[in-house]
Known about the structure:
Elements: E1 12-16, H1 22-30, E2 36-41, E3 57-61, E4 76-82, H2 94-103, E5 104-115, E6 121-123, H3 132-144, H4 148-151, H5 153-159, E7 163-170, H6 177-198, H7 201-219, E8 223-225, E9 228-234
Parallel strand pairs: 1-2, 1-4, 2-3, 4-5
Antiparallel strand pairs: 5-9, 6-8, 7-9
Helix pairs in contact: 3-7, 6-7
Amino acid sequence: MHPQIQLKEGNKVADIATGTGIWPCEVARQAPSSVQFDGFDISDAQFPHPTFLPKNVTLSKLDATLDPPESLYGKYDVVHIRLLMAVVENNDPMPWLDHCTKLLKPGGFLQWDEMDPLAFRLRPYLGSAPIPCLQALRDIWAHTKQTQWIAKLPESFSRNGFNIVTDETYSEHQHQRHMITDLWCLIADEHATMLEQYGPPERANQVKQLAIGAHAEIQLGSYVSHVIRVVVGRVPGK
């Protein structure tokens, strides 16, 4: 959680698109035990068994592109949302922002963390060695979905009535570069598996081969520098 957001006893926090629930589980370890964390996702396939969760963490199914149930309106002091690059449609995050806004109390905070593929930077080994596979994969990620909305998140926050608290970008630490770029290739390979199911199959084979070649380029010291944008806004009130 961004340090501009200070949790207090009895606060309620929602995590949208929670996936495995790792974010609320980790933040709950650092927060007062009276703070309640509720994670929501459209699918519960990645949820851990409830017995593995901290006592102040719950995980539930919820479609965050639709209006939330009335029981959740104005319930939360903080809403956190992240990594929706692959699912935001039509270059428009507003359905997600509208959903989050309705969850917040007056004076509540919204934090959105997003990876921006248009800001990825390739770093070749030996200064200028060719890295065609990493380059091709970067281009695929940059153009598969429209992601211009990520750079404009602060404007979208403002249009939805938020006061901007902070707008920052972060990159990985040096020792994380190999690991994160390797993970990037594994995601590409998973994307290829999806293409095998939904087509076209020749595209799937192309992506798989690029992932193999990119992995070889990584072993020689090349990497992709990732950029995470973090925007924190606050609803007027209190």
